[in-house]
Amino acid sequence: MAGRKELAFFFGLIIFYFYLRFTGIEPTLVLILGLIGGTWLAFRPSEWAVEGMESAAGHLGYTAYVAGMLSSLASNMPEAVISGIAAFNGWRTGSQDLLDIAVLSILIAAGFNMLLLGITIIISTKGKPDMDVPEEAIKKDSVLIQWTFVALLSMFALGVIDMATPDSPINPRFPAAASFVLFLSYLIYAGALKTGDVVNDVNKPRAIASHTKKTAAILAVMGFIGIFFAGEILTHSVETLLHDHHDTIGLIGNQVAIAALILGAAGALPEHGIAVIAAAKGKVGLAIGNLIGGVLQIVLLVMGGIGIFVPIPLDRYVLFQIMVIAGSLWFLKRVIADDHKLDFFEGAMIILLQAYVFVLLITGTPV
To answer: What is the pTM of this model?
Structure first.
């Protein structure tokens, strides 16, 4: 839980950053402080939000797996805020690059979740041949994984057809109504979790309420405030990086892909690293629920929610990553369906797949 010193640092960091930013003092210092401070704000306040959500799940009598889903929802708030602000700024200014970065960062965050899932599997199978997949993942997540796979393939097909048609729009967009369907599908899934046997089965391990109701509410509110500032600061930092250091980034690889990778990593790695820690402590159900649920939430809830208000571009960057996530979900579904177990080799292959994809995205996508 956050102490007084940490809260003082929290508010001091925000005040100091915006003072430097609005006075125009040392732009390089503002950029560095924004990237480091924004990442911390995406990490530590999201931990507060996760603690609050997990305690709330305990007070409501939910299972450990559902608690993992709820903590994943809190963990995904940085991605939603960061990508949402970037998408809005891109739409407001007419910047195609910023729109691409916003959507790519969402899908890349899902890729980082898959990467952490592979690490979690390796940690959880240390000293034993394999681990059981939580029953909830088999019953309900596998159905939603298949639905998401088909939805992404349809999205990819629409983009390819639009790009191949001579009289299609110059910058094809994903329909807002279709984005709403993605968003709605996750709400239906969440409702099924809440009312189904996942919550009501008394034989499943329950979530633990480690804080009082009042403390849980305070943690959640403070966490969401910090997450909002993380999104604003990181988005501004990436815009500055693209504008002032465009040529330097170009020496490494594709500028749009690298900027999206920074935002996706800042939003996904710190807080979803909690799942890896949970796995190391033996909380496998919480960790797996957090990561699998995180991938689905990012694609359906975050991308779908943003697409309702801001048009999602269907260009080469986005189509590539959409196909990658679809393939990753197919791979995950096959791994789960084969024997309802996960082993070291499968975890290693998931890690290798995501590393391979990130290399292709940075070095293989045309500038």
So the answer is: 0.73
